[in-house]
Design brief:
Length: about 180
């Protein structure tokens, strides 16, 4: 199997994925849209299929390609590991910006009023604390969503095992009794 990230490293293959994401396409339609030679296109399609990013259905001489969401899921899962770190960093930055804004607002108000405004807090520290709280809340929410998803999957598996398959019975149509006529000889 080709590594998903090796497959995604090539711009032509990413373009093919973008095209096929809209709708399944034949080899000819992909070739027309990408302007790749037949040999080059076949090479890229083979890599995408081996990486399980595309599935192919062949009818006669026509091959139609569509997205394989399972392969894309593996890449998304890997990228997801970094999403929470990014969001946490953004929350910290937001907190620092809020602290700077409070400090600037206090300075502006001091100039307008002409008196010293005593904030009993350090605006920068308050901003950082706010960022940490946002980050903690995001992490806690992510964990709870994960736990809830696991519970739903478990409950779904249990209910599908317990629920017997319903048998459908066809309505019986009335049958006519065959009557034999006696013939006189």
């Amino acid at each position: 199997m080709t590594d998903v990230f090796t497959a995604l490293a090539d711009q032509n293959r990413r373009t093919i994925l973008e095209l096929v994401a809209v709708e399944p396409l034949t080899t000819a339609a992909i070739a027309k849209a990408t302007k790749l030679t037949a040999a080059n296109l076949e090479k890229h399609l083979k890599v995408l299929v081996q990486a399980e990013l595309l599935t192919v259905i062949t009818k006669g001489k026509t091959s139609t390609y569509s997205l394989n969401k399972a392969g894309l899921g593996a890449a998304a899962k890997w990228f997801g590991k970094f999403g929470s770190a990014f969001v946490s960093g953004q929350a910290d930055l937001l907190g620092e910006n809020i602290g700077s804004l409070i400090s600037s607002a206090a300075s502006w108000l001091e100039r307008r009023v002409g008196a010293k405004i005593n904030l009993d807090i350090d605006p920068e520290e308050m901003g950082r604390e706010f960022g940490r709280k946002l980050s903690d809340a995001k992490r806690e929410a992510t964990e709870k969503v994960g736990e809830a998803t696991l519970r739903v999957k478990t409950a779904t598996k249990k209910s599908s095992k317990k629920a017997p398959a319903k048998k459908t019975t066809a309505a019986k149509s009335p049958t006519k009794k065959a009557t034999a006529k006696k013939t006189k000889a």
